[in-house]
Design a protein that fits this description.
19% strand; 230 residues
Length: 230
């Protein structure tokens, strides 16, 4: 076999890998745009019904730019953020056990949407020390196949990377599962020993702007790979 020159290898890599990544990015952006539209529709539908149940409950959608949007669901804030880069899974990831990736290595390159859960009051009252949690990650590849890594139902309902393709119905299902998860992911009081000491500065800050750290599982172990809430 004739050895290729560095220039030929550069052009080959650009043709094969860079073009493929452009395809992945296009799929990802299209899916994220659809997810935005789906989120707006879902909020509109839920708001009408919730208004007849309890007008104090607020459900709203907020656009934060091309690559981010927020959903406020009662006391929770869900942030959906699309990453603009393309990722490959590390060699220790279980996804490599699939024949789907073994047949075509380039299928492992994916775009990424991160889903975060915060308390709405953390932003409302500028409690900058409060904690949020990443509760799900949506991966989409060049063939529009997708799967979700996440907590509880997010981690086991949407993991058929070999067969599942992204469409409006799939994104709506993921969105509704995400909302349901965060509503059932309650705020626990931290263990007494974890908060029994507080500095004067922390107390002053708390009095001025509610800066004592708050999080749904503050003081508890929150293991990303577990299906259960710790």
């Amino acid at each position: 076999m004739e050895k290729k020159t560095p220039r030929e290898l550069i052009l080959k890599t650009l043709q094969e890998k860079s073009s493929m990544k452009q395809d992945v990015y296009a799929n990802m952006l299209r899916a994220f745009t659809t997810l935005k539209i789906t989120a707006k529709q879902t909020v509109a539908e839920l708001s009408k019904v919730v208004a007849t149940i309890d007008k104090r409950i607020i459900i709203e959608y907020k656009e934060k730019g091309e690559f981010e949007f927020e959903l406020r669901v009662a006391g929770d804030l869900l942030i959906f953020a699309m990453h603009t880069n393309i990722f490959e899974f590390d060699k220790g990831h279980q996804i490599w056990k699939s024949s789907y990736l073994k047949e075509d290595h380039s299928r492992s390159f994916c775009g990424l949407i991160n889903i975060y859960n915060f308390l709405n009051d953390s932003f409302k009252y500028s409690r900058v020390n409060d904690l949020g949690y990443i509760i799900g990650r949506i991966f989409i590849n060049k063939e529009n196949h997708y799967f979700v890594e996440g907590k509880r139902q997010l981690g086991f309902l949407y993991n058929d990377f070999v067969h599942a393709t992204v469409d409006e119905a799939a994104l709506k299902a993921v969105l509704e599962s995400t909302i349901l998860y965060c509503l059932n992911f309650d705020l626990y009081t931290p263990p007494f020993d974890a908060i029994k000491e507080i500095s004067v500065l922390e107390m002053q800050s708390a009095s001025e702007s509610m800066q004592v750290k708050t999080g749904k599982r503050l003081g508890f172990r929150f293991q990303a790979d577990s299906d259960e809430i710790d």
